[in-house]
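[User]
Um, tokens okay?
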Amino acid sequence: FFCFGGSMMLRLALIGVLSISTASAFSVGGVAPGRGLRLASSSLSATRSTQRNFALTSLRAQEATQTYDEKASLAQKERLYLDCCAAFNVDKNSLVTDDDFEQLKSDLAFEGSQVIMMSRDEIQFMVATQRYKMGKPIMDDSAYDSLRTKLKAINSPAALFDSPTCKILDDGTTACKADLTADDGKNVLLYTPALVLSALLFNEYTFWAYSWDPLLSLIAGSPIIAAVSYALTNFIYFQKPYITKTQCPKCTTPQNIYFGDVLFVNGGKPESLITTQCVNTACKCDLKADKTRMLVLAD
């Protein structure tokens, strides 16, 4: 009897130990087993959701980031450089990685690209022009015109268009325009008559009055000759002369446009806005040249 009773007590003790262990295994911090399972399941779902969001974010970043191809042409690299500048300054994101961007700048500098040497204003102007063509302007017309005028005043290549541009107005008419640029060669030639005259007069005077050597007189008197040549050219022969070159906005014929007066024909008061005609006899369209904006418009 005692043996049978001891065996039963031992079995009951083992069953009690197993029950306590099972309850402890399923409980979380002394909470009921069912609630502990729900908390564990909720924590696992949150972890999986975080991992999923991180994966989607990484995938979007990879899709937005382009791969830099070192074998691309120079024009493609320059376009990518401007796109990267626009994305970073306007959209506040990156198109390529930092290492690829540094490699892109190094390749452009090695290939002698002018884009990499552009100033902040020039890049801003090119980005604004590109975004305007995409239908996403980043500045108003007045700010754009002011920036372009500023760049054209320093003869920046970024503000000059290679060919005339045309657009259709609201009333159905077509407006064409082209850029004006200074013709440096012909502007220098304007000083030739005054330079030759002043040099000859100074040389003759110093030779007969002081018996100077002609070469020595030209070297010693170069400041005086230069000052007299400038005064004769800008105030006597011409009045504020300025020769520009452009293309006809309609027929693209190259031609020169002169701003200024000659021997006080117009009273010595040159105008910044003049009207002329295309030199092409087959075109002969009326042109309006604006020295302030450095533009020529075709009616």
Observations:
- The radius of gyration is 40 Å.
- Residues 128 and 140 are 10 Å apart (CA to CA).
- Confidence is low (pLDDT under 50) at residues 1-6, 21-64.
